[in-house]
Design brief:
- This protein is of the alpha+beta class and about 280 residues long.
- It is built from ten helices and 14 strands.
- Strands 1, 2, 3, 4, 5 and 6 form a six-stranded antiparallel β-sheet that branches. A six-stranded antiparallel β-sheet has the order 10-8-7-12-13-14, with helices on both faces.
- A hairpin with a 3-residue loop joins strand 12 and strand 13.
- The longest helix has 26 residues.
């Protein structure tokens, strides 16, 4: 079970790893809470869609009895399982670590008069050559928004299979760039004509969400970078619920970083589902 940790698991450093950590550099890297084998909680996986649950975000319990979120991802192969919460299935509704059939990613933006989205060409540094940019005027119902997001994701593309030794062939890369610039200009001109949105400022907005299509869910990632702020929606859920989840994220109030982290952190997300014996664990 050591290679199959889940969110909410109570873990601790392996004694064998601690014993083998002798150099000052490695001891400083692992830190005192690891070396003291303090209680730790798995909060979330670092690389979704990677096929691995090895690297994760965790929280340590300090000697004063308070939990705190560790600021760096850790290698879970250095830890052992102590306990799994009874509500583990609630904390792990999706297999976010599984590799999806295709890597799909869009950036959705809400302006005053429309929604628009960039469909990315995964494996390149640009947008999809056929449908780089889409838009739909407001108002939009929750169902309309959910349907729009699914359509936009269907237009995103994955070019990673075309790479040779980790790079795209130069001719292939240039062809994509030429096509995306050509098709993108047509839509950018339309958006400017209809809504006076300048092409150079289309991504200069706070009402932005990055949406990824994973193995069995959509990952909604806001423009802020605070841990635990993502939302996951089942691929099998209906358009209305997808639209509602998107608007709820866009409508989050602006607040100071400390308050935002308290409300949307990894730790605040899992705490309500942990039994008291795990929260109070001390060793």
């Amino acid at each position: 079970m050591n290679d199959n940790f889940l969110v909410g698991d109570l873990i601790r450093a392996k004694q064998s790893v601690v014993d083998a950590t002798t150099s000052e550099i490695s001891r400083n890297t692992l830190g005192p809470y690891f070396l003291q084998r303090r209680p730790a909680l798995v909060l979330g996986f670092y690389s979704v869609g990677s096929g691995s649950r090895r690297i994760a975000w965790i929280a340590y319990k300090r000697k004063n009895g308070k939990w705190y979120e560790y600021g760096w991802p850790v290698d879970l192969s250095k830890y052992e399982l102590v306990s799994r919460p009874e509500k583990s299935s609630i904390l792990n509704p999706f297999k976010t670590w599984e590799i999806p059939p295709e890597l799909k990613h869009i950036t959705l933006v809400r302006s005053k008069k429309c929604f628009y989205s960039f469909q990315w060409a995964t494996g390149t540094s640009t947008t999809d050559p056929s449908t780089p940019l889409m838009y739909q005027p407001l108002p939009m119902s929750n169902i309309d928004l959910g349907a729009y997001i699914r359509l936009a994701l269907s237009k995103a593309s994955d070019h990673t299979s075309q790479k040779i030794d980790g790079k795209l062939p130069e001719d292939y890369r240039k062809q994509i760039l030429h096509q995306t610039n050509k098709n993108g200009k047509i839509i950018r001109d339309e958006i400017y004509e209809k809504y006076k949105l300048e092409s150079t400022k289309l991504l200069s907005s706070r009402s932005i969400i990055h949406i990824y299509q994973l193995f069995d869910c959509y990952q909604l990632h806001p423009s802020v970078q605070y841990g635990g702020s993502d939302t996951f929606v089942s691929i099998n859920d209906n358009d209305e619920n997808l639209g509602i989840a998107t608007l709820q994220m866009l409508d989050r109030p602006y607040m100071a970083e400390k308050k935002y982290c308290e409300k949307y952190s990894y730790f605040s997300n899992i705490m309500p589902y942990l039994e008291q014996t795990i929260i109070d664990a001390d060793f």
